Every structure is written in C-alpha cells, then in structure tokens.
Amino acid sequence: MNHTYIIAFWSLSPINSRRFCMDFFASSLKPFGDIQCLDCGNRQDRRTVQLLHQADLVVIALQQSHREICDLFCKNTLRFSNCIYLIVDYYPDREFDLVKIAFEFRIPLSRLACIPYHPGRRDLFPGEEPAKNQTGGTVLRSGRGRPGFCRELYRARRVMLQALGF
Predict the structure, then answer these.
(1) Using an 8 Å Cβ cutoff, are 61 and 86 in contact?
(2) HSE (CB half, 13 Å, CA atoms) of 138?
(3) What does the pLDDT look like over 84-143, one tens digit per residue?
C-alpha cells in the first residue's frame, strides 16, 4: 500500500491560497502519489499546530520582507522537523534576494523556493475565462509565455518532492 504524504502550507501573515499557488501544487503533485495539500493559513491555534507537527512537510510562506523573515526566526516559537520556505510574490531584482536570504538566515538553498511576482498568474488556475487572441478567437491560457515564472513553480515543486524523499 502506498504511503500518504501530507504537505501543510502555513504562513505567519495572511496569504491567500491563490498567491500561494495551492491549486497548482495540489494538482502538479498528484502524479507522484497520494500527496494531500492542506492550507493552514496563518492560524496558530492548538489544533493547527498539532496538524503542522504531524505533517510530513510544512511549507512556510513568507513575503520578501526582511522584517517578516526575522520575525519567523526570532519571535516565532514554532519549529518543524521537515520544512521548506517559500517566498511569495518574489522580485529577483531586489537587494534582498534568495541568495542573501539563504546566507543571512542560514537556510540551505535546497530548502528555499520562490513564487515570482507576476500579474498574469491567474492563468495557472482552472476555471479562468479564455484569453482573446489577435484575430478575435479565444485561446486557453497555458502560462507558456512566462518561462521564468513556470520554471520557479516547477523548482518549488521539486524542492517539496526532495524534502519528502522522492
């Protein structure tokens, strides 16, 4: 019988699931086995904390903010045995980039991923209305015109799979 893996997505500050790309990760991890993705929001009640500690992997979402990352490591008392850090709405041109975050907070790059900021990110989710092409016909949005964005999403998925032992 296959093992069921639970990935709990959690954050210190409120981050909605669309910015977190929960739909993308839940659907793209399905081919790898029975992997359940749970959106724990930013709750810190007793039941949520217990669930986070029982999860096979905790994905902690953070803004690209030095203060928020400091709060996570300095003020937060929750610690998890298997977690990765996911920077949402990431701008690669900022001074506080992934390499500096990894260096300053001693996070291995294998435990750090990002979701780049992109205003057209909605096209990754099912149920979106089709886009209009130049001839007036409709086409499905595939996200293919954004290789950097898609590449980082797939890298984040790979980081999660490696943390689970795949």
Answers:
(1) yes
(2) 5
(3) 999 988 887 777 888 888 898 898 989 999 888 766 555 444 343 444 445 554 443 444
For β-strands 138-139 and 131-132, DSSP reports them as: antiparallel
Tokens of 136: 């007036």
Which DSSP letter does residue 72 get?
I
Residue 100 and residue 90: Cα distance in Å, rounded? 13
Q: Supply 49's token pair.
A: 């904390």
The enclosing H or E element of 61 equals: strand 57-63
Q: Which residue has 């990002």 as its token pair?
A: 114
Residues in the chain: 166
Query: 43-97: per-residue pLDDT in tens?
Result: 889 999 999 999 999 999 988 888 888 888 888 777 888 999 999 888 877 778 8
* Residue the block writes with tokens 């057209």: 120
Q: What is the DSSP string of 51-114?
A: HHHHSSEEEEEEES-HHHHHIIIII-----SSEEEEEEEE-TTSSS-HHHHHHHHT--GGGEEE
- Quickly count: other Cβ atoms within 10 Å of residue 140's Cβ: 9
